[in-house]
Amino acid sequence: MVFSFDLAVILQGDTKRTKRRSKVIRRRRRRDICKSHEPLLEIPLDLVIEIFTRLPPKSLMRFKAVSKLWSSIVCSQYFTNLSSSPRIYMWLGFDEEKILVSSSSSPDLDSSFVIDQDLTISAMKGYSVSHVYRGLMCFTNGTNAQIFNTTTRQLVVLPEIEESNIIAEEYKFRKVIYRIGHDPVHDQYKVVCIVSTHNVRRMEHWVFTLGGGVSRQWRKIPSPCPQHSPFTQGLTMNGRMYYLGLVPDLLSPVFVRFDISSEKISVLQNVEDAFWCRYYYTEIIEYDGKLAILDYSDLVKDGVMELWVREDEEKNSWSRKTLVLHPSHMNMVKMHIVHNMSLRVQGTTRNGDVILVPQHITGPDDQFIVLPQVTTLFYVFLYNLQKNHLRKVYIKSNRYNTKRWDVVGFDDIENFMSL
């Protein structure tokens, strides 16, 4: 028994000494590891950002958890603006089901887009895409709305606008429009909701701020006069959202500006002689870094478009330019755009190309109905206004075979913000 006790004491002492040695070794290893990683702290910030821009989204999502610095870099607006490749977003119809896909540009000089992502999730069923902006996508179903981050695949359901009188009174005919914008002053994304009655005698404007640490409620802001109903997709640039709106009893629409930072709405002076055109063939676009209005009502028929460019905002100074398609470009359009078909503007690329999407048009001119394209060939036209050059770009897919499809947006941003 004595031998056994002494042996136990000895073994216990050895165990304690072993543990002490292990702790010393671990401390030395940690010190050595820290020393070996110290040079990483000296990597210039611009080089770190350059490395990050070359990484896929999945890797960047993991790196956000490494440190607050890395997380702030990845989620910063500066980094967001650096990425990524242009993407066309499309709905594809299969019987009663619709799926959402995106197509990236191929490396062969952008001569085609290639479908490489299926973004469909079950929560999207019954919803349609109303706006795509900087990696964020707005889905709507009546008065309900959801925001989907196309990079992180995070989906949030926006609360109902409970204080809206127009929604509460359940008008049989009402219009609800959702748009996403970015506030550059506070680096925040906001959702703007415009609610109006069918006769546009009443309207409301609501704002919701996305992201953590902010109030999760809609805020009502004063609506401008005259009362109007937006009819263009609108454009957001330099912290402001612009759109054209129809006013009852007026022959021409109004030009509306919403400042995303101050949340103030202004009805601007119209462009002289610019609004005689049919409103559903008019869109606000960005042209050479400036705000512009494009009238393409005569594009398919005569190959002509009218472009108004705002040269000076304070003076409301605009220049007018008539664009005429080259005969070879016109023949290409007529070859693919047949009877009861037209083209719809779906944004512009960073290269200044206007995206023209083929559409089926039914009904008389005053009550026309736009339907998705019905063909197994997926394609769009890219029209460079400065070079007056039009080209057809195919959207390639080896997986999907459907005759019903529509382009719902274009974006070239990867957004890592948390909704």
Automatic annotation (TrEMBL):
Pfam family, one: FBA_3
Native source organism of the sequence: Brassica campestris
UniProt xrefs under SUPFAM superfamilies: F-box domain
Coiled coil location: none
F-box domain sequence ranges: 37-82
Matching NCBIfam families: F_box_assoc_1 (TIGR01640)
UniProt protein name: F-box domain-containing protein
